[in-house]
Amino acid sequence: MRANFEKYDLSPKDRGFLQELVYGICRWYGELDDFAANLLHSPIRNKDRIVHFILVTGLYQIRHLNTPAHAAVAETVSACKQLNKPWAKNLVNGCLRNALRSNYQSAITIERLTHPEWMVEEIEAAWPRHVSAILTANNERPAMCLRVNKIKTTRDDYLRELLQADLKAVFDPLSIDGIILQQPVMVNQLPGFTDGMVSVQDTAAQLACDILQPDAGHSVLDACSAPGGKAAHLLERCDNQLKLDAIDIAEHRVQRLYDTFSRLQLKANVYTADATSEPDWDTPAAGYDRILIDAPCSGLGVIRRHPDIRHHRRRNDIAQLNSVQQALLDNLWPLLKPGGRLLYTTCSILPQENQQQVALFMSGHSDAILAPFNHPCALQLEIGQQTLPGVHPMDGFYYCVLYKSS
Ligand SMILES: C[S@@+](CC[C@H](N)C(=O)[O-])C[C@H]1O[C@@H](n2cnc3c(N)ncnc32)[C@H](O)[C@@H]1O
Known about the structure:
- The protein is α/β, with parallel strands linked by helices.
- It has helices spanning about 10-40, 50-65, 70-80, 90-100, 110-115, 115-125, 130-140, 155-165, 205-210, 230-235, 250-265, 310, 315-330, 355-365, and strands at about 145-150, 170, 180, 200, 220, 245-250, 270, 290-295, 335-345, 370, 380, 385, 400-405.
- S-adenosylmethionine (SAM) binds near residues 224 and 296.
- S-adenosylmethionine (SAM) binds next to α10 and β6.
């Protein structure tokens, strides 16, 4: 989720509070909706849906934030007037006061109530032993993880800078370029952010670079590249000495690629292109040494960072994503040079998007060999490796490296 709060003229404190409300309500909406239904004698009419959301915003503050009760009630009630629903003031006031006295308990567990049923079924089918840990983690606020740009500074020096700026942080024990902040902050509060000293990136995403192992001078294709987090890490690791082609199909996201490379002062060839079609960008005649397919996916491994995924993702999206994932593998494999390596990765925890895709691909490509790789903690699967939120201290990611035999 990338909420655009810039358009509002807010102080940093108000902006932080607004972000907390938006993210928190996305996380807990199932519970808040159920609680609201318990408090109301009859549902609010569709044409006054905004009143329902005003009520939910008050309930979130009462249930999940330390907002003093009187302030939560007074501010929420005053929102009715500001949003042209003055008639709803008494209704909202009464409901919130009842909520403060209520010992509401949902009929099913909060974790299940806060995820769509189909999503719980899919996660349970894939990870029966871990389903409860995953659903619980999806509702937590994730740590803010940083990746230090080793071209510009060292992890020790940057940690010192953070501490001098009164930002408590520790080395990430699982990623050699990583630092974990004790409290999230706005990126402009990070020392040297605009000068490219550091980027925000979860540990799981940082590990893609260690797994792909690029060397200076390599030709690299990052086929689903925007906004460029992993591509930038590959370049930083190799002192900006890669011939890196960064492709993305979405024009508006390609702009973010330019922004990333410009802020970090990195060199790459950027193309807007469909990586499932015949390449219309210049590809190296001998093939690429490394290909990264960070495939479009359901995002079910990153719900804690993007809590809206549970609201907009639909079960039948998965089959459509599977077709694109397979087309990417099929189309890009011929571009890999013999002896080269391809990393297929997703931020999904569903086997349909992960090992099943690779198995299907391998069944038609006898020159694709599973290559072993080290991951500091992932679950080893028959094909590839998987991290799970709540089980591993990072986002849920799938990784599989294929080596091309000559
Ligand atoms: C998981 S995101 C990539 C994140 C990126 N690798 C990073 O580390 O910052 C997947 C990207 O794939 C792009 N994409 C989807 N279908 C594509 C296609 N057919 N060809 C190229 N890019 C595609 C999407 O626009 C999206 O930006």
